[in-house]
Amino acid sequence: QVQVVESGGGLVQPGGSLRLSCAASGSPLEINAMAWYRQGSGVQRELVAFITNNDRTNYADSVKGRFTISRGNAGNTVLLQMNSLKPEDTAVYYCQIIVLTGVYWGQGTQVTVSS
User: How far is CA 35 from CA 13, 23, 30, 54, 55, in A?
Assistant: First the structure.
């Protein structure tokens, strides 16, 4: 069983920055890819960014140039650096971990962008 825990959400003003962190633990932990999704109020969950185990990345068009996904040094963590935040970035952000045996989700962390 794999556990996934996110942290780093909060309230920030438009134009500000936040960094989200996600840590995976448990077994088996052969991670193929890690991703961040988000779900705003009344909308479907959408992919924000993902990173593979060989550091290939991809981003939603809405966040390109503003968000950066990266893997932590330990290999079982994934970070999302969010800059130039906009009110439309307000959502619950979820971490997804893909391992050989399945896909695991965290419980989400709230990001609110408001003045």
Answer: 25, 12, 15, 14, 12
- Say whether pLDDT at 103 is over 90: yes
Which position has the token pair 């439309």?
88
User: Residue 80's closest CA among 54, 109, 114, 113?
Assistant: 109
pLDDT of residue 28: 65
Residues 6+ apart with CB under 8 A from 44: none
Q: Which tokens go with 65?
A: 């140039």
Q: What are phi and psi of 104, to 5 degrees?
A: -125, 145
Taking 80 as the threshold, does the pLDDT of residue 33 lie above it? yes
- Give the residue from 73, 59, 67 showing the smallest Cα distance to 18: 67
Q: How far apart are CA 9 and CA 84, in angstroms?
A: 15
What is the spatial distance between Cα 19 and Cα 78, in angstroms, rounded to a whole number?
Answer: 10
Quick check: 63 and 76 in contact, CB under 8 A? no
The tokens of 111 are what? 């990001």
